[in-house]
Amino acid sequence: MIRFARRLALQTAGAVLLAASLPLAAVAGQADDDYIAARDKAVAALAAAEKAGANPDDLYKRDETALAALEKRMVALLGPLTFKGLNAPPTFSPGTLLDGQIESGEPDGLRFSDADFTTRLLVSPEPVFTSWLAGRAKEENAPPALTGGIKAAMETDLFYTYAISSDAAFAIYAQLPVASAEGETAYAALGLFSQDVAANQVPDSIVITRIASGRVIIGTSEAKVAIKSIPACDQVWKTYAAKAKTLRVAAQKSKKDDDPRWDDASRAEDEGSAAYRACFAREVKTQPFFAAAVARAEALLQTARGN
């Protein structure tokens, strides 16, 4: 027993010395891998318990226990974080590990927000976030850009719908040219969170992505800019809207629920919404509100850099 205790002490001391001699990136990388492995193990255990017919209350308790353990790991991975005007302590993401629940698809990280939830940040270790993104990229109908990593994905609508939305789909209207600091990758866009076809609604939200120091930060805030409709783009939308209306009138006269013109009408609206946004992206730089929107994005990016 004494020999065993001495051997264990020597092994522990050796491990400490090895860790001390490794580059910080190597130590952090192992911690990231350990988190991902622990998360995957917890998800698998819950799925197995659910498949075996576990009592729902028991499942929820197991879920809460697993989330608490992962949150401790995440806090250790990210270290102390403060963001001006945002809450402390943050909340852990995902909201559940139970498959099939809405919050189970959320990225792993810590969420910060202001008091009225109009400004929000998600912070995640880059390797952990990359692992989550790779999982979402495998889902049916996922855009090809999601398979290209964070830098490719951050310019897509679905990226922000998945990462920072609150039960609404995000649509990008225009990229905002923010300046990246040294060693930082930054992206910003003006867009709209909506639960319906965006049509010719003007955008009202800013989103940003920041990659730096081994962390990924996804953020959103209300634009708080007087964004006005662009007449040329409204006209683009009206053309598609008229087409959709004509198709619906014809489908209604047929009195057939399976009339293909119902789907054609919806498709026309989707195409019109996309065409409106494409027009907006072309015209927005000449609009008087554009500079103010860029300034709002720069401010949100500065908040994401932390205190």
From TrEMBL:
This is Uncharacterized protein. Residues 1-25 form the signal peptide. Residues 254-270 have a biased composition (Basic and acidic residues). PROSITE patterns: TAT (PS51318). It comes from the Bacteria. Residues 253-272 are annotated as: Disordered. Keywords: Signal. InterPro entries: TAT_signal (IPR006311). It comes from Xanthobacter oligotrophicus.
